[in-house]
Amino acid sequence: MQVTTEIFRKIFGKSRRSDFFGDFQDIAFAEDRFRRAVGYALCYVVFGLISLSMLLNWYEGNINMVFVLGGVLLGVACAFAWLWIDENAVYGPLYIILGTLGVLGIYLLLNRDTPNGSLFWFLLFPPMVMLCLGLRQGTVAFVVFYVFVLLVMVTPLHSHLTDPLAWTARVRFVAAMMGAFVFAWSAEFLRYQTQYALGRTMIRLEQDSLTDPLTGLGNRRDFYNHCRWIAAGSSGKFPVISLAIVDIDHFKRINDTHGHEVGDKVLRHVAEVLGAQTRASDKLYRWGGEEFLVLMPRTAAREARLALERMRRTVEKTPFQEGCLEIPFTVSIGLYSGIMRPDVTGQIAKADQNLYAAKASGRNKVVG
């Protein structure tokens, strides 16, 4: 799980999770759990086979049981030491298994009656650590163990075997172990890169699905996601909010007179003017057509009305200009203030009713 968690932290930081991206996260975490389960299974199989080999050697009188128990206890001690160093470890049982496997591997290297073919159990070590520990910790575990293997192969420790390996066999074994590591590391690195690239693609798709392409503002879906996020963080005590729907007066006349291309530029201009007037705590959305929505969390009616009135006057004083073309315009605003509800549809409807009241009473005003 560690690698996947690092990927998401690197890509998304502590950003708000949406339903769209949440599905991808669940799939990625499930894939990571399955990968670790395969590594666990491989560890248990190898652990059982090596333990059985040790017991058979003990039964035949080739080794002392004290050595066997001492090796297992040393492996467990190493595993707990690793856990103590890594305070955030979530692989408790796995570290114990790998630590014990390492000590059992030392037994296979140093036991003078071990057949030469038993050494090739070590070729399973690289994929095991990569599957279970991921790229960084798996590499560290392999390097430590590989250094020990090299020491055994090139020092007199190896000479006490009943049938010492020839130098050519030692070189082949060491090279084969490194080859297995390179293959396992490459596969894990490719998986990491693929998952990272897929995560980047998914976050871009999510951003596109929550953004109005014309103005760059959030769309309706982003608004509802943000409301759910506010509700989820309120612990049942819903805050006071103010919702305002802003409509450009006589926008159809602008389109009919100057064309839709100019109309789009006017919409972008209005979005910039409104965005410059919103407070840091407010959120501005493109609601549809020539309508925008302003969400003001924890803002009472009087404070919201003052902010919206200032916004209305600024829009009135900021006509759209392009070359010799100047298009003055105004906006009508419908406001609703009250306690936030999990379903804000009714509150939006009330703001919409106030917007129609503003239009009916002459436009270019705030009602609510």
TrEMBL record:
GO BP, sorted A to Z: cell adhesion involved in single-species biofilm formation; negative regulation of bacterial-type flagellum-dependent cell motility
Q: Does the keyword Transmembrane apply?
A: yes
A cellular component term (GO) from this record? plasma membrane
Q: Which residues does UniProt call coiled coil?
A: none
Establish whether keyword Ligase is in the entry: no
Q: What's an example of a GO molecular-function annotation for this chain?
A: diguanylate cyclase activity
| Regions that span the bilayer | 37-59, 65-85, 92-110, 116-133, 140-159, 171-190
Identify the Pfam families for this entry: GGDEF, MASE6
Q: Which UniProt keywords apply?
A: Membrane, Transmembrane, Transmembrane helix
Q: Report the InterPro entries cross-referenced here.
A: Diguanylate_Cyclase, GGDEF_dom, MASE6, Nucleotide_cyclase, Rev_trsase/Diguanyl_cyclase
The record's SMART domains line, in alphabetical order, gives: GGDEF
Using the record's annotation, list all stretches that form the GGDEF domain. Answer: 239-368
> In its UniProt entry, what is this protein called?
Putative Diguanylate cyclase domain protein
